[in-house]
Each structure stands twice: as C-alpha cells, then as structure tokens.
Amino acid sequence: MSKMVINGERVAAQDGRTLDVLSPVDGEVFETLPRGQAADVDLAVRAARDALGGEWGRLSALERGRLLLRLGEKVLAHHEELSRIESRDTGKPISTARADITVLARYFEFYGGAADKVHGQTIPFQQNYSVQLVREPLGVTAHIIPWNYPAQMFGRSVAPALAMGNAAVVKPAEDACLSILRVAELALEVGFPPGALNIVTGLGEEAGAALSRHPGINFITFTGSNEVGVLIQQAAAVNAVKCVLELGGKSAHIVFDDARAELAIPAIVKGIVHNTGQTCTAGSRLLVQKGIYPRFMEALAQEFSKVRAGTPDMDLTCGPVVNRAQFERVNRYIAKGLADGMKVVAEGRIADGVPSGGYFVKPTLFSAASHDSDLFTQEIFGPVLVSVPFEDEAEAIRLANATDYGLLGAVWTENGGRQQRVARGIQCGQVYINGFGAGGGVELPFGGVKKSGHGREKGFIALEEMSTTKTIIQYYGA
Ligand code: NAI
Ligand code: MG
C-alpha cells in the first residue's frame, strides 16, 4: 500500500481506510492508497504550520533554492522510475510520461534558481522616511491537483510556493497520486525539513473539501472542473484566503486562408490528441476560413486518421482516458455529436490487442459544428476536435470568444497586422501565433479569464501569486 507523507513521515490514514487504484489500461486494481480524512488533513496543516516556525522557516532564500535544485536533480536521477509510475497510474503513453517528468524537474530547476532573485523595493515617500516593500510567504499553501498531468501540475504549483518559503499541503487527485507521493519521498531524501511538503491522499469530497475549508491554510491553488472550482472559491471566501483557479478551457485555433497548412496541421492534431485530449489547454475547437475550409479539412483528416490509441507500452499517440467516468463522458459527447447530425470527417483507431476493460476512446474529428452545440462550447476533455468555417476576421474573433472559457488561443496567418489584432481580440490568458504548445513553457505566465479561472501560474508571476508584500515605513529624522 502507498503511504501519505505528513510531517516528514510516511503514514496511513489515521482510521486505516484505503482506496483502490485502478489501472486505466484494464480497469483492474493494482495498488491501494490511504483514504485521508479531515483528521489527516488537520495533521498535515499543523505540520506545515510548525515547519514555518521551525527549521524550514529559518532557511534563507538561497538555501530553499538549493533544496529545490537538488530535488530537480533527484527527479532526473529517478526519471525512468517516475515515468513508469506516472504512465501506469494515468495510462499515459510512456513517452508522454517521460516528457512530463522532464517538465517536473524543470519546475524545480526554474523556481530553485529564482528563489533568491525575488527582490523587494524601496518607495520614495515624505522627507526623512524610508519605505521598504518586502516580499513574505503567505504561510500554509493548499494545492489541489488534478489527474491529467499529476507530476507536472505538482511541480507547477508546489515549486513556486516552496521557493517563496511557504509550507505546502497537497491533495492529489484520487486517480493520480503515485508519482507525487514518490517525489515527496525524494524531497525528504534531498533534505527538505519535515512539514515543508505534505501530501494527503483521498477523495475530493473528503480530503479535498477538508483541506480547502481548513482554517489553518492561507492560500489555495486548484486546477480542475468548474463545479469544484466554485466550491473551492466558496471555501476560500469563508476563511478570507486567496485562491488561484484554473478551470479548463475550450481553446480555439483560428486558421486564415493564408496560413501555412504544413505547420498548422500537425500542431492542430497534436494539440487535441496529446495526453488523449485530457489537457486544459487542448486546442479543442478549430475555426477555418471559408475559402480553404474543404481543402484544409481534407488534409487535416488525413493526418488525424493516423492517430492511434493503445497501452502505455505500445507508446502510441493516445493512451486510454483516466477512468470510467471520463470514458463515459467522452463517448457521451461523441454520441451527442452524431445524434445532433454532426459529420465525422476522420477517426483515429484503437490499436488491436488492447485489454477489453481499458478506457480507450476513438479519436474523432467532427466538422461543421453548430455554434451553440454542446460539442462546440463545452470542455470534453478527450481526443475530440470540432471545426467550423468562418467568413472574416471579425467572425473568427466572435466565434473564438463564444464560450464561457478563456484559456488559450492560436492564430495561424502570415499577415502581421492580423496576427496582432486577433491575438489581442481573443479573450484568454495565452495566445500562440503560428504555433501551439499546449501546457508547455515553465517560464510563461499562464492562466485563464472568464470561467477558465483567475490568477496566474508559471514564470516569475507565480512567485508573486504565492507571496504577499509588507510595506515597512520608517521615520529616521530629527
Ligand atoms: P474534479 O474537479 O472533481 O477534480 C480535480 C481535483 O479536485 C481532484 O484532486 C479532486 O480530488 C478534487 N476535488 C473533487 N471534489 C472536491 C471538493 N468537493 N473539494 C475539494 N477538492 C475536490 O474533476 P473531475 O471530476 O476529475 O473531472 C471532471 C472534468 O473536469 C473533466 O472531464 C474535465 O473537463 C475537468 N477537469 C479539468 C482539468 C484541467 O486541467 N483544467 C483537470 C481535471 C478535470
Ligand atoms: Mg469531480
């Protein structure tokens, strides 16, 4: 059985209860996890608080940074082991898992290097006054992590928090805890003091809800569904703590008639099938200018029909989706598209020989979606791409903005003025021009607008989100 990590120790839930871990590849149980409850969360929050008042809180920024750098190196030293754990737990093709673990290490490298480079300010004020603006940690930070990129999201959320001197309590998703638990053990091995980083496993509505409501936390980061995002924000309101929410997206590619199709097509396919479409930043809508629509869709269909789903070891483009609920959700959307009369222009294939109990879905490309259909406006979170033609720039921007979400966008055109106008016209947190890098870019500020959430992660901006300022005003005259 796997163990949680609380106060530097590997522990079971206090009441001894466990959860089964099912393989997405065949639906069989292969591991058990502690089913943490409010009492376990409470222990972890206290351990974090004690760490802030103890050894962890006394470390300098340089020393914290060095610990993070060491953890990054340790992750690389265990790269294959962690990749295997991640791939087994989530069903990711092994290459995808390897790429994720590389990014995990990169988060510790980036924020380890940044820890001692966050400076305060002095502010000119009245005569004989000195005013300093100093950065301070928030305190105990709570991190509720989703299952789609567990290792990466753990790094994205926890590395800047630790760099700024917070103590973290992490609740991974019940479907994807194993790589995070292993990294927390590695953190102890490289010398993180007890309580600086705690992991409580369990169900969202139990351990997750208990953590978000705990009066001892000072901040919450959450990535996941809109429904739970609302609950997190309500819990944060009760304790008057800040939260950063990343609640998914329905990001659009906008392809103009002068776009370089040979660049756009592979990026569009990868942008929706990578990680089996379970990516908040997936390019899940495709808007193509009318004049090239038939020709472009034909070329795209050719590329899309090469997509294959298989087991992690087959290492094809897609794996299974993470669990039965997700399997049913994606298939429900595909069925809805068909029932609504939408046309399938290409399908990928599920490889021969995959286990029958696995959660494999057929990658599907739909054309001519109606603008208000569920498939066009809702997050599916699977390898399903919907496309529509558009007339001109104004219509493209209007359609791109015609969902509640606002996470990413992409514009494909050689026209410089149009690149800039469209990039500025799309309501979202990140826009690519002639490229698409869903999820990539540890250095690049990232987050949403509208119902995709608020707050920013990645880059230096995360260090600001995960700290606060104090203004010290000193009179030194007469
Ligand atoms: P979810 O929002 O329920 O799960 C995300 C995390 O929140 C998990 O760690 C879960 O344990 C935790 N959680 C669940 N209920 C909670 C509660 N009451 N209080 C505190 N924490 C709680 O997402 P779910 O149900 O697994 O997936 C449903 C849909 O959400 C997906 O199909 C997808 O559309 C979206 N989603 C988006 C993600 C993103 O990257 N933006 C990631 C995961 C899901
Ligand atoms: Mg849920």
From TrEMBL:
Oxidoreductase: present as a keyword of the record?
yes
Stored Pfam families: Aldedh
Q: Which domain of life is it from?
A: Bacteria
GO MF annotations, alphabetized: oxidoreductase activity, acting on the aldehyde or oxo group of donors, NAD or NADP as acceptor
Keywords annotated in UniProt: Oxidoreductase
Domain Aldehyde dehydrogenase: start-end pairs: 14-472
Q: Where is the active site?
A: E246
Stored InterPro entries: Ald_DH/histidinol_DH (IPR016161), Ald_DH_C (IPR016163), Ald_DH_CS_CYS (IPR016160), Ald_DH_CS_GLU (IPR029510), Ald_DH_N (IPR016162), Aldehyde_DH_dom (IPR015590)
Instruction: Report the family membership.
Output: Belongs to the aldehyde dehydrogenase family.
Q: What is this protein called?
A: Aldehyde dehydrogenase
Task: Specify the species.
Answer: Bordetella genomosp. 13
